[in-house]
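Thread amino acids onto this structure.
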């Protein structure tokens, strides 16, 4: 087992808040605990193929690569996901104990295999959905019917493993508001810098087409944290003093630009 292999696989699965990361302990070897799958790249093999093969050999789990996170010291780091059902814990070939660990700040893994863990932030999409109102462009906002102290918000949610940004955005809008006739204008530049969270945030401007009510209630569906909650929606003028998530929102000025320039 080498400390700086050629390919590392951060195998993740969705959890209620953060990713969970696949780790294993070598049975009877206390120096080898919290190990991330990985190993050397064989002749004629790509780094991605090596990450998939090493994960199968070391844990018995078949995976596919989602994205490359970077190269550090000649080692390729990938995010991957299982392509078959996986238990919460299992023993592979009577040699290693495999398990899932929440990917929380400060998580330590064996050797230098955790070097790029900070890049493994779970992605989140935020929907700034607008329509043309009588007095200018309006923004769709909501409040929790039963938790008004949460403040004024817009639809948002985390990506599932293997999900792309724009499909995730449309899914979140449908689940949280019931709207499906939506056009995505584009991602808002520099949206990440306006959030302080554990996620990699992507804000998008989208437009709701067709006849829409001025206000409505919607029961959130899907399997997210908000499933079953009732949101009260309304359209509000886009103004500098509008607060979202209980704070001023510099991104709102971008929503007032002509649509063909966004």
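Threaded sequence (262 positions):
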């Amino acid at each position: 087992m080498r400390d700086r292999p050629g390919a590392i696989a951060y195998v993740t699965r969705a959890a209620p808040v953060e990713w969970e990361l696949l780790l294993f302990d070598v049975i009877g070897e206390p120096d080898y605990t919290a190990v991330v799958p990985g190993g050397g790249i064989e002749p004629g093999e790509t780094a991605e193929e090596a990450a998939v093969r090493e994960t199968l050999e070391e844990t018995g789990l078949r995976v596919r690569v989602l994205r490359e996170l970077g190269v550090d010291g000649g080692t390729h780091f990938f995010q991957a996901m299982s392509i078959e059902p996986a238990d919460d814990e299992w023993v592979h070939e009577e040699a290693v104990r495999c398990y899932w660990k929440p990917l929380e700040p400060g998580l330590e893994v064996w050797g230098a295999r955790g070097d790029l863990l900070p890049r493994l932030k779970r992605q989140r999409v935020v929907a700034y959905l607008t329509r043309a109102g009588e007095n200018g462009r309006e923004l769709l906002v909501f409040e929790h019917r039963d938790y008004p102290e949460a403040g004024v918000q817009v639809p948002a949610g985390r990506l599932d493993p293997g999900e792309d940004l724009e499909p995730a955005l449309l899914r979140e809008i449908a689940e949280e508001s019931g709207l499906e006739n939506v056009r995505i204008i584009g991602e808002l530049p520099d949206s990440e810098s306006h959030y302080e969270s554990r996620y990699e945030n992507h804000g998008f401007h989208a437009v709701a087409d067709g006849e829409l009510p001025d206000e409505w209630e919607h029961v959130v569906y899907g399997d997210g944290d908000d499933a079953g909650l009732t949101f009260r929606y309304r359209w509000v003028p886009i103004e500098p003093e509008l607060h979202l998530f209980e704070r001023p929102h510099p991104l709102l000025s971008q929503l007032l630009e002509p649509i063909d320039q966004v």
